[in-house]
From TrEMBL:
HTH gntR-type domain residues: 1-59
Native source organism of the sequence: Vibrio vulnificus
Identification of the protein by name: Transcriptional regulator LuxZ
One Pfam family here: FCD
Keyword vocabulary terms for this entry: DNA-binding, Transcription, Transcription regulation
SMART domains xref list: FCD (SM00895), HTH_GNTR (SM00345)
A Gene Ontology molecular function term of the record: DNA-binding transcription factor activity
Length: 208
């Protein structure tokens, strides 16, 4: 519950989190609240300081760049490994994940951007899951989870121009290159896609 409210901006970056207030907000006891806050601090959604208290983690351009620089190191390597190791089941899962993502972005209607974001995460995770590199994949998932908070923040800042934040055509091209076993070009486009995403989120932080 706390995590979702952080993602959706109900609890804003830098906001003080008081256990008594959260108990009333969610109608649960203090112990589950404290446990949730500790877990959220592990994923860096929450900042804990002994004797001082707890806050929603701020959004920071330096942290954003650090996260994306790390992601741009690991994700292209994972993609190349996934292309080399991926079997028919992986190919089918990638196709299915892309199809679900494309269905979430219908330009003729008002899209559900929360659903888009969940499907977007699923697409990228599925794309790289074919790699036989468990530790590297776990590192990717940890980075993606931290970046998720920044992506949701950017969504909240792009109310009138969300389509520019997410490019379905890029995802389609990455998918096609991966399924065609063109690992070098797929990795290059994925790296470019991640760089563009970082810059658009950076713009949202600067505009806030």
């Amino acid at each position: 519950m706390i995590c979702q409210d952080i993602l959706h901006g109900e609890l804003k970056p830098g906001q003080k989190l008081v256990v008594a207030d959260l108990k009333d907000r969610y109608n649960v006891g203090a112990s589950p609240i404290r446990e949730a806050l500790v877990q959220l601090s592990w994923s860096k959604y929450v900042k804990l300081e002994p004797q001082k208290g707890c806050w929603v983690a701020p959004v920071c351009e330096n942290e954003l760049r650090d996260l994306y620089e790390s992601l741009r190191v690991v994700a292209p390597v994972l993609l190349k490994k996934a292309i080399a190791c991926g079997n028919e089941n992986w190919e089918l899962e990638v196709l299915t994940a892309y199809h679900k993502l494309s269905r979430a972005q219908n330009l003729d209607t008002t899209p559900d951007w929360t659903e888009w974001e969940e499907r977007h995460t699923h697409f990228h995770t599925t794309l790289l899951a074919g790699a036989e590199a468990r530790n590297m994949f776990d590192f990717f998932r940890d980075l993606a989870n931290q970046i998720k908070r920044y992506r949701y923040f950017a969504l909240s800042q792009h109310q009138g121009n969300k389509h520019s934040l997410f490019d379905i055509e890029e995802h389609e091209m990455i998918m096609k290159l991966a399924l065609a076993k063109n690992s070098e070009e797929a990795a290059r486009l994925l790296d470019s896609h991640l760089d563009s995403s970082m810059k658009m989120i950076e713009s949202a932080i600067q505009a806030a």
